[in-house]
Amino acid sequence: MKIRVGLAAVLALFGSGAFAQSSVSAGMTLSVGQYDLVYQLFSIAIACMGASFAFFVLARPNVGEKYRPALLVSAIVVAVACYHYFRIFNSWTEAFNLKDGVYVASGIPFNDAYRYADWVLTVPLLLVEAVAVLALARNIAGGMIGRLALAAFVMIATGYPGEITTDTTTRLIWGTISTIPFLYIVYTLWVELGTAMGTQSERVKVLMNNLRLLLLFSWGFYPISYLVPVLFGGVSAAGLVGLQVGYSLADIIAKAGFGVLIYFIALEKTAAERSSLPANAVAAD
Q: Can you give the residue ranges of every domain in the chain?
């Protein structure tokens, strides 16, 4: 029964566009420090995504033509994330009112679904970034992106019912199901990046290994954050703050940080390729 209810929520989200209501319970209170921590982190996320967008757009001419689509995708990812963080930030400020030295739930829902709307768009694009920098043959890259994008959709769709529930068991069930495609994505990228390292220069090998570690670290943040409400006994102030902090940090690292590393890998590959070309070919490029 619980799983059927969760599936109905997913269909509502992706079918009719209706979003879940607040994870802020009626009467919930936050200390000034708890409220400000989330408030400031949302502000930092907006600034990081906006600055990263400008950087990726302006830095595209620095890399070879075949790597420029990866930077374009990076710019799109952080632009979409920046927009959604504006919506999340506004929703947060509306969800609480300062009263007698504490922040009290206003009754206006804090909409968690903005994150999932963001992930539906940005996670497949992040996978395109990672595959693009590998510079695989088009037929191989296309098939890999298709499989990874499908796995990403399943991961997000099955994680959402657990996100909106107040029942710990339901959250754990859907979280476990969502972990299966999550592990497939991480494993595939880890292996493919490792394989691609074998034919690269030493500098690129170091950067690609760092990319693998960043991928593991940043994506590993998401399931940990997902479990924070469980660790704090369900819907609570500490659980809400921990969840928002964890997701925001993971997004900053996985989107802006990941894109910056993609840029430096593309830059090193471009330098290596140009050094092996005649001077007139480099000038033309």
A: 27-278
